[in-house]
Structures are given as C-alpha cells and as structure tokens.
Amino acid sequence: MQAALSITAKKSALPTAIPLRNDSAHAAHTACSDCVLGKLCLPQLFVTMPFDVMSAHLNTLVRSNKAVLHRKDTLFHQGSNFDALYVVRTGAIKTCLTDANGDTSVTGFYFPGDIVGLDGINTGRHTTTAVALDTTSICTLPFAALEKVASQVPDVQRHVFRIMAQEIQKEQRRLLLLSRKSAEQRVAAFLLQLSRHSSQRRLAADSFKLPMSRMDMGNYLGMAVETLCRIMTRFERQQLLQSDGRGVCAVDLDGLQAVFDSAAE
Amino acid sequence: MQAALSITAKKSALPTAIPLRNDSAHAAHTACSDCVLGKLCLPQLFVTMPFDVMSAHLNTLVRSNKAVLHRKDTLFHQGSNFDALYVVRTGAIKTCLTDANGDTSVTGFYFPGDIVGLDGINTGRHTTTAVALDTTSICTLPFAALEKVASQVPDVQRHVFRIMAQEIQKEQRRLLLLSRKSAEQRVAAFLLQLSRHSSQRRLAADSFKLPMSRMDMGNYLGMAVETLCRIMTRFERQQLLQSDGRGVCAVDLDGLQAVFDSAAE
DNA sequence: CGTGCATTTGACTACGCTCAATTCCGGTGG
DNA sequence: CCACCGGAATTGAGCGTAGTCAAATGCACG
Fold first, then answer.
1. Of all nucleotides in the shown strands, which has a C1' nearest the CA of A215?
2. Cα atoms found within 13 Å of the Cα of residue A84, Cβ hemisphere only
3. Pair A69, A132: CB distance under 8 Å
4. For residue B219, what is the nearest residue in chain A, using CA coordinates?
5. SS3 sequence, B134-198?
6. Which among B97, B100, B102 has the least Cβ separation from residue A2?
7. pLDDT the model gives residue B77
8. What is the pLDDT of residues A39-89, one digit of tens each?
9. Are A101 and B264 inside 8 Å of each other by CB?
10. Is B122 a domain residue?
11. Is the pLDDT score of B3 beyond 60?
12. Is residue B253 over pLDDT 70?
C-alpha cells in the first residue's frame, strides 16, 4: 500500500511544489498564497500548471478563503445538496456515512491540502457528513465553476480526474487494509499514513497530532474502540510510539513498518 | 439454470486480447448502433445526451468494438501503462490489487455496462490487474480521446466525473460493508447487489450467474473461502438460495434482505 | 480415466467483540 | 479555585465469530 503511494508522494514532496522560474512567476506565487488557495492546495490541484495560468484560474474559482469551522461543526450533511468541493487549509475534517440500518462509519480523515466532498458529484447530493475535528479553515470551490474552467483548460480537467482517481485508489488501499490485515497491522498502517501525510506537509515525519477521538479512529479502522486502545497501549509498551492522548504522537517509523510487514503470511 | 446458456453458447474461437482497429468511421458507427457500446453503456456514460450527439462522439471514442477475452485472460496488469478505459459488453471481469507484502485482494467485479480501468487515471499506470472470469467482450475507450471530447462537450465531462464519483461511492459502501457487517450480512449484501445489477440489465432479479470462484468471492468480501462456503450452504439449507456451483444462483430476495437487516446492532 | 485444482465439511483455535468496571480529563457551576 | 459531572479512554474477563489446519469430495481438463 505504500509502494503505490510513492509515486504521488514524491511529486508533492518536492521542496517547493513547483519550481519558480522567473520574477513574474514569483509574483503569481505570492498573490496565490496571499489571497487564494495558498500553497497547501498546489500539490493536489495544480501541480503541473505554470504559476501564472494557475493563479488566474484560482481567482475565478475560489469563492471564499476564510471559512472557519470549530470543533464538531459540520461542513455538509449527508443528503444535502452538493454544489462545491472544499479544500482543507488548516485543521482536520472527518467524513461519516450512515447506512439504512443506522450504522455509521467514518469514511475518511482530511488534512491540510486534502479535498473534501467528491462523493457528491455523482448524485448532486452529499452521501457523507463532514465534521470538523478541530478548529479548521477551508476553501470553497464551487463545482459549477470548476467544471467550467475544467472544460476550458485541459490541465485542470485532467487534474480533477486525477484527484478523483486518487480518491479511488485511497479507498482501494483502505479496502485491502480492512479486509486482509490484522487489527494491529491496520493501526500501524494508519499511523504510518499520518506520518507520511505529515512529512508531505514538511512537518516532522515522526511526530504529529491525532485530532480524532479513539472512537473515530477505531471506527475508521473497522475495530472496536477497546481493541484500538489495547493496541495503542501495547505499541507504547513496545516503544513504538509515545502518545499524549489526543495530543501529539511520536512514532518509531521503522518499528511500525516492521509490525505492518510482519505476519504477512 | 436455463438462462445461463445463452451467453456461454457463443463458442466462437476468436483471437484474443489485442484490440482490433476500426478503419472506417462508418463501420464504427454501424457497429455502435448495433450493440457496440450499445444500450448497455448508455446508462453509464451518455444518459443525458441526445442520441445523435452521442453517437457522433462515440465514433470518435471507440477504438475497438470486438475485443474478446477468454477465461483468465488479463485485460491489463497492475503497473502497466494506462491509456484507455474499458466497457464490459458481455461476460465479467475482476480486478485484483497486490500490495507490497504480496497480499492480493479482489477489488471489484465488473459486469456488462460497467467501466473498468479508472484506477489508472491518477498515475498513468494501472494499480490493479483486470482478469476475465468468463468469455468476455469489451469496448476500448482511449483515454486521451475521451479527455478531448470531455473538454469539448460539457455533458461528457460531467459524465466522466459522475462515473468516477460513482466508483468512489461504490467503494465507500463496500468499506462500510466490510468494516461493520458480519460475514453473513456481507454475503447477503453481495447477492442482493448482484441481483440488483441483474435486474438493471432487464434480467431476472432472482436468478443470475456467479461467474467468479468461491475464492474470489470470499476474498472480495474479506473472509476465508471456508467461511464463505459454510454461509452459502447455510443459506441453501434455509432456502435463501439455490446454487449450482459457479452456475446460476436463484435467491430469495426478501429473505436475504432480512438477513442483511437483521442483527442491525 | 486419471491428475490437479476448487469446493465442501469438520475440528480446533484465536483474534477481536461485548459487557462491565475504573480511571482520566475537560467543562461547568458553586 | 475546587468539586462535581459526563463523556472519553483504558483495562479486565469471558465469549463468539470467523480463521486455520486438515481431510474428503467434486469437478474440469487433458
């Protein structure tokens, strides 16, 4: 599952997402970080585009750059009308899906740079509920506008395709994780994934926040809360991590990787 | 036990795998109206478009209308270059994903009208391997051409978005299934899904083929083959289904739905 | 008409769930 | 500022579902 990531990861892990070419490009870059999506969104959305082109489109697209959610605020509800995608700037979001039997499961966590709301594209209604796990600021991308730009600018179209395909791949990896790995391996994989995400954002790879509750985490990983807790404390006893509750979590990457790889067969 | 023959009866020993090129647009068009993408693909790809507009685009898109795969032939390999999407016309396809530890899981089954290969859009390489479960004919949609048409025709663009979003939703439902439902419920849900798919194609809702092996089925549902077998025989004892091995399977829809709903919490 | 793989069934085991009891922590009011 | 409350987190004990191992049977293909 990490092998598959390595390709996309490298792209966005470059020192600065896009190399600066000249003064004008630099100017565009400044404008962009000032008022629009900011650097965070670059890796996801506009990686291959020249800066000036990109920022021109950005200005067309972004409706708001300062929406702020507080803990437990919902960004959209399951069943509500879909009209925009959202880019997380800071904080964190979880998405939940409730089925006909009332069973609810956490379908994803979204961190700075991630795009939330793709699920609504199909039917025009959101199939999940998005909730802030923390104080979170987001950008809004009205989808109609995005579609329009996408049809005018092939690169944008392609990137929307890619972003969606990425989501599909993410889900596939998670499916493989849930269906074929032990609870211990799943937790290890989850922490490694957060670590990777953290280092992609130029933050420490071995120390990051766990903004979600244990319940959410367990639910996301398809196990009971108790099981998750036990595994976390076991990992702590084995010096694989040091956790401060919901606070920062420092991990032994190699150790966790070993856990993940072990018991392969 | 009876309808199955109509599909398998076509034993024409056609050469395989490598798509044939259509020289003339006219040929493509005719073939198209006949049954190429035919009605099967309409629901998925061109639902909202007038027929004449649609078929004009189809001519641009469809490279081959008669690629035939036999049992165990692969349509594409994990890691191979992505350059086209494929529409299943008849038969069935499974996609498999192998992770770094060599663990393989079946990520999906695709039936007539379904579109295979979306996973490759992100990186330009397929992340799964697609294998025919049966004699299967497919259409090839070169992705570059599709992108081009999509950027010229907003409706097409929107439909590609939708198809991808649909895939995301499908995976999400499966995730919920795997992480929160018992093995029994998962099997019931799987059979109900096949039933729905079958009736969508105007075929009997309560009787359909199971073209995949028990192993594939179990793998797909995240359980051991033995578990799957036991559940199948249990269902049979309970008159919830009548199975002819890999052949046709007749099911009691209400009964299965009851199993699925039961044990809600 | 065998050979080899897929399927089925059985016996046993274990991983992870449930139920239950504390403990921890953040928020709230006195 | 402290005591209190409620939910989250942790820990423990026992059980059940589904996995593993093993053997028997069925089935397709040469």
1. D8
2. 15
3. yes
4. A179
5. CCEEEEEEEHHHHHHHHHHCHHHHHHHHHHHHHHHHHHHHHHHHHHHCCHHHHHHHHHHHHHHHH
6. B100
7. 94
8. 444 445 544 555 555 556 655 666 655 688 988 899 999 999 999 999 998
9. yes
10. yes
11. no
12. yes
Taking only the tens place, the pLDDT of each residue in A167-225 is 999 999 999 999 999 999 999 999 999 999 999 888 888 889 899 999 999 999 999 99
Distance CA A57, CA A85 (A): 15
The residues that bridge with B132 in the sheet, in sequence order, are: B93
pLDDT of residue A165: 94
State the CATH number of the domain containing residue B19. Answer: 2.60.120.10
Domain assignment of residue B175, yes or no: no
**In the predicted model, is pLDDT for residue B58 greater than 90?**
no
Q: Which residues, at least 6 apart from B190, have a Cβ–Cβ distance to it below 8 Å?
A: B217, B220, B221
pLDDT higher for B167 or A25?
A: B167
Is the minimum CB–CB distance between B120 and chain A shorter than 8 Å? yes
Nearest to A161 among B105, B121, B128 (CB): B121
Residue B215's domain comprises 181-261
The model's pTM: 0.82
State how many domains chain B has: 2
CA–CA separation, B111 vs B136, rounded Å? 9
Euclidean distance between CA atoms A242 and A249, whole angstroms: 6
Q: Tell me, yes or no, whether B150 and B185 share the same domain.
A: no
Which residues on chain B are in Cβ contact (under 8 Å) with A152?
151
- A95 pLDDT band, cuts 50/70/90, is very high
- Supply angle C-alpha A193, A198, A199, rounded to 5: 100
Point out the domain boundary residue: A175, A194, A209. A175
When CB atoms are compared, the residue of A152, A162, A179 closest to B121 is A162
Top pLDDT among A145 and A59 is at A145
Last residue of a domain, one of B135, B170, B205: B170
A96 CA → C20 C1’, Å: 28
> Which of the 194-233 residues on chain B come under 7 Å of nucleic strand C at their beta carbon?
213-215, 225-226, 228-230, 232-233
Is B131 in contact with B73 (CB distance < 8 Å)?
A: yes
Q: Is residue A19 located within the same domain as residue A77?
A: yes
